[in-house]
Amino acid sequence: MKLSDEAKVGLLITASFTIFIVLVGVLAKINVSQSGYVLKLYFGFLNDLREGSPVKIAGGIKIGQVESISQSGEKTEVSIWIDNKYKLIRSTQFAIFTTGLIGEKYINVFVPPSSDVSNFLKNGDTLYGIDPASFDQMMLTFQGFLHDKHGGQMLAEIFQNSHKFVENLNNLVDENRYDIKKSVLITKAMMGTLSMETREFMKQLNILTTNLSQLSEKNKEDIAIALRNLSEISDHLNKIMYRLDTGRGTMGKLLADEEIYNNLKDASVSAKDLFYSLKKDPSKLLFSPKK
């Protein structure tokens, strides 16, 4: 069968495009394998994790993806690719998370604080991941607990005790219905009184604030004068204290000069003796003693 020129051109274009796509895929795979490293993780439960799912650090930054998932004995082996820009220490943990409640599954990476930053994971290392929590597994555990003899008996006792507790609570309420109603009424009255007193207090407080504002506005100039006077008095007192401390003036010299203090003390003693002598013999005030 002889092909037309148009068919030949179409076949040539199709073959060229197919070869181009294959080369791009091969080159991209080679480039990816050269710029990252592969780790093998073992999980007991995947919770619908699939190939191509992202690998994120701190639940947000994508650092790689799931390359393949296979069964290896009792564990499921998950191969993940990690970008070379992210170096992970040996103590790093891997767990399967879900975006939101029913979003996509991804592997979350936990990098714990560590002082040893020289021992990093490398290509081909194998680790054990943390299995995700499963509602089905929790239900199986709960069913196993119910089927167990002691578990069923314990659950029955819990329900029985809960029923007794509710019954006792109802009896207590019925027996003290009047007191409870009275307490509620008293509390309601107290809250009403407190609310009225609070409103009255706020009203008086607003009046006081308004009066103080008006008073300060009217006597603004007097207050400023009083403050200036106080400032001047404070300056004068500071000057007086400075003169006393430095021994200036009569009082300052009396306080600073110990000799003047001693002279005043001696004069005081002499005056005391003189007054005592005059008290005993007042004539000495008019007549000088004979020598």
How would you describe the overall organization of this protein?
The chain is an alpha/beta fold and 291 residues long. Among the domains are: 35-132; 138-175. 58% of the residues lie in helices and 16% in strands. It is built from seven helices and seven strands, in the order αβββββββαααααα. It has helices spanning 5-34, 135-147, 149-175, 177-218, 220-245, 249-256, 258-280; strands at residues 36-43, 54-57, 61-72, 75-83, 93-98, 105-110, 126-128. It is elongated. The termini are far apart. The model has no long low-confidence stretch (mean pLDDT 77).
**Sheet with the most strands: spatial strand order:** 5-6-2-3-4-1-7
Question: How many beta strands in the DSSP annotation?
Answer: 7
User: Helix amount, in percent?
Assistant: 55-70%
Strand coverage percent? 15-25%
**Main pleated-sheet profile:** 7 strands, mixed
Q: Give the N-terminus to C-terminus distance in angstroms.
A: 177 Å
- Principal-axis shape: elongated
Low-confidence stretches: none
H/E element sequence: HEEEEEEEHHHHHH
Mean of the pLDDT scores? 77
Counted by DSSP, the helix tally is 7
Radius of gyration equals 50 Å
The SS-based structural class is alpha/beta
